[in-house]
Amino acid sequence: MEKIRCAWCGKDELYQKYHDEEWGKPVYDDETIFEFLVLESFQAGLSWITILRKRENFRKAFDDFDYKKIAQYPDEKVEELMQDAGIIRNRLKIMATISNAQKFMEVQREFGSFSQYIWGFVGGKPIINLPKTLKEVPATTEISDQLAKDLKKRGFKFLGSTVVYAHMQATGMVDDHVIDCWVK
After folding, report:
1. Domain CATH for 171
2. Active site residue 8
3. Which residue of 130, 133, 154, 180 is most buried, as measured by CB atoms within 10 A?
4. From 8, 22, 28, 48, active-site residue
């Protein structure tokens, strides 16, 4: 018998693997949280499957998502990334990733970890929603609005409320698996 999954992942094996093994599972380590911030910011305006298919290229291009290295990228690295056909070659998003890495470390210094900061918006534990269908899953919430606003105030870019809500889902701050999904 085939597993019942959230409909958004369809029949694509990569999407199903991501859905089954990552989406909605709580992430508390700063390294993985930063990886998803990078991927989500590049996803803005594109489909998530496009980003998933390029994930390993992003990992290689952005030094395994090492925010300490990324924060120090010189102009030459930006030009190198602009020539990398394996990633999304958007100068503004590349520049934002470098800036966001710097801001990420500022938040770490202030809160002890980025995880401590971001999870504070949901009281340190996942919000478990029980949607019957995907139509019941919002694109944004009051919390994603607040978090996006706070990130913007701190100088982060390409992290509006919709992207932030997708990040919250990806890192398990919110569990939006539909009620009949096998992962529930």
Report:
1. 1.10.340.30
2. no
3. 154
4. 48
